[in-house]
Design brief:
The protein is 37% helix and 17% strand. With 270 residues, the chain is of the alpha/beta class. The N and C termini lie close together (7 Å). The model has no long low-confidence stretch (mean pLDDT 94).
Length: 270
């Protein structure tokens, strides 16, 4: 069994939506998170390296990861060319001192990008110390129909990547075995998006502990496995009725995460 190590717990700026990127830094500092992951999206501050550096310095909160603009709503952020997006994400991570770029697999209609994606991510990873951690996704469902929206596959363990991101809200939506996926990722697991779900066709991103995903088991595994990446709280607080309610959810998520990391780290070594 590997020696336990301290695992940093970061707040995704997506967790405060519809509030701003700047608000995420304020909340992360106030609640005692170890850092932030910047979701690059339509908020101009999320796209501006100097603005992000100023926020990080002002709040004393490091930027641990950059999430490349891979969502449908970010198709025009940092260019319409997906490789340009990844190059800019890598440059942002390098300049901001972040260790990881999170990237989704391509949409199936991005045919050329999808054909070149696995080899292209390897090429980019070879050019930097920043990790490109490819994130598991899920089939899109409507009533009794299922659409495979991602290529080469939503289950990224079917392909050969240097590093993976596991997202437990996505395993819930995919209705797949999260611990089985964790096992397939093995020591290539480089990053974690921690959230929960109840198997809905919608990507729920619940506060950990409020769904049926093995959040505690995953955290306990990380604490004793030699994991050297970051755990990022990526939850949906859009239904919060006030800023205080949003902060309470994010404080609960942080407390849950640290509790289960610490509990496993205290177990006697064999």
């Amino acid at each position: 069994m590997a020696e336990p190590r301290d695992v940093s717990v970061a707040l995704s700026t997506a967790s405060v939506y519809p509030e701003s990127t700047a608000t995420a830094f304020e909340i992360a500092a106030r609640l005692g998170y170890d850092g932030v992951e910047v979701m690059v999206w339509t908020d101009p501050v999320s796209q501006d390296i100097e603005a992000l550096r100023r926020l990080s310095d002002y709040h004393g909160i490091p930027i641990l990861a950059v999430h490349a603009p891979c969502l449908l709503i970010t198709q025009r952020v940092w260019s319409t060319d997906p490789w340009t997006k990844l190059r800019r994400a890598r440059a942002a991570a390098e300049k901001l001192g972040a260790s990881t770029v999170v990237v989704h697999p391509p949409f199936r209609w991005q045919r050329q990008y999808a054909r070149d994606f696995v080899a292209g991510v390897w090429r980019m990873a070879d050019e930097t110390d920043v990790r490109f951690a490819v994130e598991n996704m899920y089939p899109w469902r409507y009533r009794d129909r299922e659409m495979l929206a991602y290529a080469p596959a939503w289950d990224v363990t079917q392909d050969d990547y240097r590093h993976f991101t596991i997202d437990l809200s996505h395993t819930s939506t995919a209705r797949t075995d999260a611990l089985g996926m964790l096992g397939r990722m093995g020591d290539r697991l480089g990053h974690v998006h921690l959230a929960d779900g109840r198997g809905s066709a919608k990507d729920e991103h619940l506060v950990p502990g409020r769904g049926d995903q093995p959040c505690a088991e995953l955290l306990e595994h990380l604490a004793v496995s030699g994991f050297d990446g970051h755990v990022v709280i990526e939850v949906n607080t859009r239904r919060a009725m006030s800023g205080a309610e949003r902060e309470a959810d994010l404080a609960e998520a942080l407390a849950y995460t640290r509790k289960h990391l610490a509990a496993a780290a205290r177990l006697p070594r064999r």
